[in-house]
Amino acid sequence: MIKLFNIKLIIAIFIVTTLFVFLFNGCSKKSDKDLILELVESIETLAEKKYTASILDLLSEDFVGMEDRSRDEIEELLNQYFEKYSGIVVNILATQFVDLKPDQAEIETDVSLSSGAAKMFRKLISYSGQTYRFTIRLKKIGQNWKIVQAEWRYVYLEELFPESMKILKELFPKL
Description:
The structure is a single chain. Helix content is 45%, strand content 30%. It folds into 2 domains: 1-29; 31-171, Nuclear Transport Factor 2, Chain: A (Roll). With 175 residues, the protein is an alpha+beta fold.
């Protein structure tokens, strides 16, 4: 009788402990900051694979790009770029939050873009590509963040965020 009681107690403790672990690990919701950073990082893979439609899915319906470009104009711009260049490599460098509110955010992200020669060759000659700073405004729609506005400009290496230079030097040690 005592052994049966001990086994039931051990099983009960195991079940409660397992539920406790699942509740606290499973309920740990990603922060808005984490979700935005994931969205930015996803653009790297989507652009390299030339997934125009998936990139457009990250834009809000009322998106406005640089020079008041619409979603359709951004789609045309992406398609032209993807047709013209092969071997596209995107390195998302550092992202800084300018503003973060429950339903809207603004970030600045340094990006290195290159295309053409094999990735290993670029690394060998320490060609980091052209560097740009993107200013991106986002809004939360339901549980998802969407890009509302995006602007970009070329930046010299000296203008990059310090964190961006650190990442570039890790990617290209001879830089």
